[in-house]
């Protein structure tokens, strides 16, 4: 049974029906269609906190998906899962891979900044001041890029940049 059919959410069901109709009409290859189904099932599993199942679906989608833009979102979502599980090094790897395919992905830039900021706080609490400064500098760099792409987003990051004297000029 496809993953979304288990979900009783009206919006998810509507999206599934519309997506199925669009896929039947659009001239896409069998692999592209299958990749989309895996991606959709991965998103559904992820939204329900079923991360292992989501990862399986995303990895299957990556095997089939050829479009770099679509692959960037799959990689981004894999990064989200690893980040949620506290596996920040793996998350960073996937966010960077996503950005290599789609440099206009402010949410990936933001999430990288969040990880570096977290590591900066952690280092500061451990009295590792030079490491802390380095992590905060990295966080600032990625937040500046995210804000450049999405100037109306990331208000907390904008405030942090301003209050710490790292504001983007």
Automatic annotation (TrEMBL):
Pfam families, sorted: TPR_1
Chief location: membrane
Superkingdom of the source species: Eukaryota
InterPro entries: PSI_Ycf3_assembly (IPR022818), TPR-like_helical_dom_sf (IPR011990), TPR_rpt (IPR019734), Ycf3/AcsC/BcsC/TPR_MFPF (IPR051685)
Keywords annotated in UniProt: Membrane, Photosynthesis, Plastid, Repeat, Thylakoid, TPR repeat
Subcellular location: Cellular thylakoid membrane; Membrane; Plastid
GO biological process: photosynthesis
GO cellular component, as recorded: plastid; thylakoid membrane
Each TPR repeat, start to end: 35-68, 35-68, 72-105, 72-105, 120-153
UniProt topology in membrane: Peripheral membrane protein
Classification via SMART domains: TPR
Assigned protein family: Belongs to the Ycf3 family.
NCBIfam families: PRK02603.1
UniProt function note: Seems to be required for the assembly of the photosystem I complex.
Protein name: Photosystem I assembly protein Ycf3
Species: Laurencia snackeyi
